[in-house]
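step 3/5: co-fold with S-adenosylmethionine
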Amino acid sequence: MNPETTHPTQHEENAGPLSLRPAGSLLVVATPIGNLEDITLRALRALREADLIAAEDTRQTLRLLNHFGIKKPMVSCHDMNEHAKAGDLVRQMREGRQLVLVSDAGTPGISDPGEILIRESIAAGIPVTMAPGPAAAIMAVVLSGLPTGRFCFEGFLPSARKDRVHQLETLKMETRTLIFYESPHRLKAVLSDLLAVLGDRRCALARELTKMHEEILRDTLSNLVSVHEVREPRGEYVLVLAGAEADLLRDNAREEWLRMTLSEHVGLYLAEGSDRMEAMKKAAKDRGLSKRDVYAALQADAQEGKEG
Ligand code: SAM
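step 4/5: write tokens
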């Protein structure tokens, strides 16, 4: 076979940057968030081929490596030392070492160390790529049943209540689906604060994703607060909350409309520039009525007005 006419197989094409990676690069590797079967083939290969693994907690990563029979030198790179370590790690990559960055679970840089090393590597002109994989936020929003088209990842809310409430205040009008990480011991307090500040919205509480006790409660915030009055939170949680447009703004507007008479409601759209048909159509849609019902009600009002 003429090698020039040989096309790469699908597999070879997909082998991508890993097989072609230049000497001295950073490879960010996502690891499972509970279920070890979620490790990807690329992640395993990256770990096997690394010269050095920068790990959030080397003991945690050692368990992962042992499980897959991999032996590699490791260096710790966590929230408290990432800044100090980044310079030396960049130097090692410049000397040609392949560095793999992992965190304890999931995707590095997502509520985990990684951001600083990645930024400094980019700034130093070191090639940076990734073996992507699990991230609890993505799994939770996908399974939430809430809109996934636009979402906003907020990570962990501040632990001090005053700061937390302040941060939630800034999210009141956020229309995108909101995603929060939370620890079990703060869950009850956070659910109550969310309800108090953002109002009663649809919420999905995802617990122990990919693990034996995986559970997703999809309910209103107020019901989830009640459930947790008698239930002790246990395990890891992601909270996914409907954005303001989806629930709050529409509910507020609905309350406003229901306080108006039908002709006031139609008048609102007339004042905004709609013609009469358009205004009736919009008011009918807001109130869940047919256009014919709106027309009939307005006729009856007008008749009453004339008679009265
Ligand atoms: N880097 C990770 C990722 O990609 O999702 C997140 C690490 S952060 C330190 C840990 C938080 O992520 C937990 O407190 C929890 O909110 C969320 N989390 C991680 N694994 C989870 C799981 N299996 N089920 C639910 N939440 C999880």
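step 5/5: annotate
The longest strand covers residues 151-156.
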